[in-house]
Amino acid sequence: MATGKKSAKPTAVKPSGKRDENFFELVYQVARQIPKGRVTSYGAIAACLGTKLSARMVGWAMNGADKTRPAVPAHRVVNRVGLLSGKHHFGKPDEMEKRLKKEGIKVKDDKVVDFAKVFWDPVKELGF
DNA sequence: CGCCTGACGAAAC
DNA sequence: GGTTTCGCCAGGC
User: Fold this and answer.
1) Which residue's alpha carbon is at the shortest distance from the C1' of C10?
2) Which of A4, A14, A47, A95 is the one with CA 20 to 30 A from A62?
3) Nearest nucleic acid nucleotide to A45, CA to C1' distance
4) Protein residues bordering strand C (Cβ below 7 A)
């Protein structure tokens, strides 16, 4: 690392700017731990990061989730009621539901069926 | 530099 | 019991 340059810039919300995305990275990392067929909530991730006071930022971090490599399964992240709040941000709302169904998660009326059953708590699973 | 917005959450009304 | 508002934090304009 002579130059020590980190070109890891998803250019999500910042096309041109230096952003460590420290907060965002944490969100991505936790979100990547979500096993297939499982879902979690923004607040759960936020609580895991310690930013439970601002679950909003978690969702925001997802803004560059699909731009992050490896891509973060943002489709497995829903709001606290199991509603596919971020489906409108996938470019196509059908994609999120389709993916969840494909992974074995039943989605009805834009919300996860048996959300409590497929709910994956990062704080609990990761032992936070 | 200040105001607004934003993929949440929980409480207040 | 549904709707509205505040709170939180950070970034965009």
Assistant:
1) A57
2) A4
3) B8
4) A 13-14, 17, 19, 23, 51, 53-57
Name A38's bridge partners.
none
Cis peptide bond N-terminal to A93, omega within 30: no
Strand C positions within 7 A of protein Cβ atoms: 7-12
Q: Which two tokens stand for residue A102?
A: 């494909």
Query: Angle at Cα A96 formed by Cα A92 and Cα A98, nearest 5°?
Result: 100
Q: Which residues partner with A119 through β-bridges?
A: A39
**Whole-angstrom distance, CA of residue A65 vs CA of residue A80:** 19
0.90 cut: is pTM over it? no
